[in-house]
Amino acid sequence: MNPYTKNLNRMEFLVTLACTGRCKHCSEGEHPAAGVSIDGDIAAKAVRDLCTQYDIQSLMTFGGEPLLCRNAVYKIHAAAREMGIPKRQLITNGFFSRDEEEIRRTALKLARSGVNEILLSVDAFHQETIPLEPVKLFARAVKAAGIPIRTHPAWLVGPGDKNPYNERTAEILAEFTRIGIAPSEGNTIFPGGNARKYLEEYFDPGEKPVSPYQEKPEDVHAICISPGGDVLGGNIYRQSILELLENYRPYGRKSES
Question: How far is residue 200's CA from residue 192's CA, in Å, rounded to a whole number?
């Protein structure tokens, strides 16, 4: 096994960059309303193949808004459940439809596909452009389908900082707490993309953005596959995930093994 990937235990899929929100805190910058999405069948095969050689303990799908590409999400999580991955998470802003029946049907399909935790992105930033009522309807449908769900807010500067955005976020979280949905710790906004553009006053001008999700290239614990299939300098549409991992070399170095 490649020594640089021997500790790999997590898979993530950036299902699509298309999004229903236009959030000023987004570290990815502006998102289109439509765009490239991951091929669900190829992604599911990558899950199955990877699990034959690696002890994958968690899998996550996110976006953009992943539920704009629901069939791909179902296929990825069904493969994860089939292969015995214990933690199967979805991060969503909860706004992909206004149709109540479609929302309920989606919640049931997510449960059947094997999603066992949903993190719901609600906060002052998402709710500037995303209506709250369809999101609440989705949250209730998810609860009814038996999937554990928590709100997952973005905090500006930090959860304890007193600023208008955090105050509004606390109000929104309280609305979900009243319907039985507790918050996660959430995350602190990364000063890049839209956040650097629209929230500049809240960051140190000399601060050099460092992503909190950055992996050590020589000790990979998690991989994130893009909508176009890119990962670790290769592509799952052109190579098997196992071949790609075996050939991976950080900084272009040859393996010592």
Answer: 10
Nearest to 46 by CA among 213, 240, 178: 240
What are the CA-CA distances from residue 19 to residues 4, 43, 54, 60, 132 (Å)?
Answer: 34, 20, 32, 17, 16
Give, to the nearest 10 degrees, the angle between helix 132-144 and helix 164-177.
40
Distance CA 172, CA 202 (A): 21
To the question of pTM greater than 0.85 for the whole model, the response is: yes
Three-state secondary-structure class, residue 16: strand
Three-state SS for 26?
Answer: coil
Say which residues have a Cβ less than 8 Å from residue 230's Cβ, sequence separation at least 6.
Answer: none
Minimal CA–CA distance to 69: which of 133, 18, 137, 11?
A: 18
Are 59 and 91 within 8 A, CB to CB? no
User: Cα–Cα distance between 18 and 34 in angstroms, integer?
Assistant: 5
Coil, helix or strand at residue 48: helix
Q: pLDDT band for position 255 (50/70/90)?
A: very low
Confidence of residue 253 (pLDDT cuts 50, 70, 90): low
Cβ neighbors of 99 (< 8 A, separation 6 or more) are none
Residues in Cβ contact with 96 at an 8 Å cutoff, skipping those fewer than 6 apart: 20, 65, 67, 68, 70, 106, 138
